[in-house]
Amino acid sequence: MTITLIILGDSNMVKLDEKMKEDFSKIKIFPFATASKDGVPNVVPIGFCKLMDDETIWVADNYFDKTLSNLQENPKASIFVWNTETSGCYQIKGDVEIKSSGEDYNRMYNMVKEMGDKYPAKHLVEMKITNVYECKSGPEAGKKLL
Q1: Distance from first CA to last CA of the chain, Å, rounded?
Q2: CA dihedral defined by 94, 29, 80, 39, rounded to 10 degrees?
């Protein structure tokens, strides 16, 4: 496995490798976890979760309530990548930015509306990947991969 670390100022971002990207593409619904500033956890199923490049994930806010509030208080999130078709099991963590206008937001909005007009696409949650951890059981469970 190739590990690439990119350092931009004080922020560390990592890039998913080819195997991780392939596994990501096999997921239909992603568990998306956040926490309030007080550390109260929240997890929701996400249907619009797109890997935009090796280090950036887009999540559409269609119906966020506690999730949006958590992200406004604590702009960090985690996504779980696993199903019976994946070769790996990963917990992806990252820093998020909430966007409700601009070119990226408009692009996400159009992508969501192609899925159906019933989805409001209120915000774009752009997640920059900072860490990836092993989720499979066994001696490597919880090991930092990236």
Answers
A1: 10
A2: 70
In this structure, are residues 123 and 102 in contact, taking their beta carbons and an 8 Å threshold? Answer: no
Q: Determine the distance from the C-alpha atom of residue 138 to the mean position of all C-alpha atoms in its chain, rounded to a whole number.
A: 24
Does residue 123 contact residue 68 with C-beta atoms inside 8 Å?
yes
Residue 61 banded pLDDT, cuts 50, 70, 90: very high
Question: Rounded to 5, what percent of the chain is helix, strand, coil?
Answer: 20, 40, 40
Whether 24 and 81 have beta carbons less than 8 Å apart is answered as yes
pLDDT for position 5? 33
Which domains does the chain show, CATH number per domain?
A: 5-134 (2.30.110.10)
